[in-house]
Amino acid sequence: MPHRYFTTEIGSGRAALTGPDAHHLADVMRGRVGDQVILCDANAVEYTGTITSVQPGRVEFSVSEGYPSAAEPSVEITLYAGYPKQGKLEDIIRHSVELGVHRVVPFFSRYCVAAPKKEEAKRERYARIAVEAAKQCGRGILPEVSLPLPDFASVCRELKDYDRAFFFYECGGSPLRTLLKEDKAVRRIALITGSEGGFAPEEADLAAAAGARTVGLGPRILRCETAPLAALAAVMTLTGNLE
Amino acid sequence: MPHRYFTTEIGSGRAALTGPDAHHLADVMRGRVGDQVILCDANAVEYTGTITSVQPGRVEFSVSEGYPSAAEPSVEITLYAGYPKQGKLEDIIRHSVELGVHRVVPFFSRYCVAAPKKEEAKRERYARIAVEAAKQCGRGILPEVSLPLPDFASVCRELKDYDRAFFFYECGGSPLRTLLKEDKAVRRIALITGSEGGFAPEEADLAAAAGARTVGLGPRILRCETAPLAALAAVMTLTGNLE
């Protein structure tokens, strides 16, 4: 299988890789004129690229007609994840990108143990982790990690932008199987999972008032790093995007 | 919510905790005569226990009639997981126990990068991790971690013990949604996921010959620590055990 690279320098039958990707292809993979790779525009379109020149720091290609990336799910999921302690958000990002998430938005809430600290710098690191995971698992887009929202009300204000919002509550709620059976035309979905401390009852009320459906993930207590993966895998399974 | 402990010393209306659990209840939680806790026999039966005596290293209880643990899923899933590198098996165990696994069986296979090393000692560590996870997430049993099987043929020999075996293959297969729709009376299920190197084609053939259904988990390449969680979450979702 030819190697796969993301590039934004693509159009009119030509494309280029620069920077670390050019170095990887030229020096690590020893790519030569005439070799083929897959190029992805990070907008869910892929191309077969044939190397036309290899220069220091730059590899150029002629490219085929674009075709839709097969790896993108039919639903566009934003994961709102309560900000966890330590490095757990990194694990959540890696797993979520593999499971097909579109965007990850951490947030602070009443029972969060973590507090905001150097979030601009951390966001760069999170974005790098998301890009690496997207490359490894063959995504057609580069999922974004947003700056954390300062409180749960800010999460709720964004929910109107989605076809459906599911609030995963440790106190239980409706089964996803039922909720997703109701309406198959859902495309933009928000999933909301809590941090170690879970949600305050008034946050559950806020979410419901903002139109989110309260959902349960079963009788076992899932850790804050397991719940988002279970939620994502469940939605992807039920919408036919994990098969 | 009262604290929850596992104990095997339970029967005839009486029960006892010893060792670290007795210390935890007596010295950390400051349990006193008359206080109530939930006791679980690790066999999916729970009891309300009322403390009748607190001695050094031993707490005794009178117990209510037993009731079935609500946390146990209706399916009994054994996860056969290709032995991964580094500490990844520990993460797989933690996540799987939360998602309701019954038993985890690591195995070595053709493309495994890890090699057997001090597996008896490691198994003790894995068992401790499973027990801790079971306590934290409120399981009614203590999921077992078996000693690793030496090769993939050994995995296949065990598959006859299950109602269904699903072989998750990176080259794709049938959708779980279809396979699980066919037969709702399935109880004992084996899930088989690979290590970093994935499976050799002859291993896929072996699994099929042993009666396993080959299953795909979608177009994205899942890491060996993500695939078991996605597989478990998918089966639990489709069988109504994640709601």
Descriptive notes:
The structure is a homodimer of 243-residue chains. Chain A is α/β, with parallel strands linked by helices. Chain A has two domains: 4-68, Hypothetical PUA domain-like, domain 1 (Ribosomal Protein L25, Chain P, Beta Barrel); 76-238, Alpha/beta knot, CATH 3.40.1280. Chain A has helices at 19-28, 88-98, 119-137, 152-158, 176-181, 201-209, 227-238, and strands at 4-6, 10-11, 14-18, 36-40, 45-55, 58-63, 67-68, 76-82, 103-107, 144-145, 164-168, 188-193, 213-215. In chain A, the strands form two sheets. In chain A, strands 1, 2, 3, 4, 5, 6 and 7 form a seven-stranded mixed sheet that branches. A six-stranded parallel sheet of chain A has the order 10-9-8-12-11-13, with helices on both faces. Chain A is elongated and about 60 Å long. Chains A and B meet through helix 2 and helix 7 of A and helix 2 and helix 7 of B. Chains A, B: Residues 17-63 form the Ribosomal RNA small subunit methyltransferase E PUA-like domain. Chains A, B: This is Ribosomal RNA small subunit methyltransferase E. Chains A, B: InterPro entries: Alpha/beta_knot_MTases, PUA-like_sf, RsmE, RsmE_MTase_dom, RsmE_PUA-like, tRNA_m1G_MTases_N. Chains A, B: Specifically methylates the N3 position of the uracil ring of uridine 1498 (m3U1498) in 16S rRNA. Acts on the fully assembled 30S ribosomal subunit.
